[in-house]
Amino acid sequence: YLSNIHRSGDMVIGVHCADYSKLQSQPLTLLSSDKSLVTNFLDSEETSVKKVAATFDSKVLKNKIDGKFIRINGDPGPGLVEVSVNEKAAMIVMGSRGLGTIRRTLLGSVSSYVMCHASVPVIVFRK
């Protein structure tokens, strides 16, 4: 991004969606019998979000870029599109985790959703 797209005066908005999918995959009986499982998972996810935010803030400061971090919850595709609308984004630059064909077919792809629903250009890069 910095080498090829960024221009002076641009603002970068880092968006991260917390991943609660592991919590949803646990049997309800297991979750209801041990409340600490839920608490520990939520604490772990919160720590992960804070780490992502700190990494973003560090890179923005290091490269002297105007930027801010936004945390979203829920489905990441619609959340990213909503942030792009609310923040009046000129472009979306996002990464792709490179899911396998079967998993992508069953679950869908966040990048595919964003490309189909965003009203601005979308650039997707592989990790």
TrEMBL record:
InterPro entries: Rossmann-like_a/b/a_fold, Universal_stress_UspA, UspA. CDD domains: USP_At3g01520-like (cd23659). Residues 36-126 form the UspA domain. It comes from the Eukaryota. This is UspA domain-containing protein. It comes from Magallana gigas (Pacific oyster).
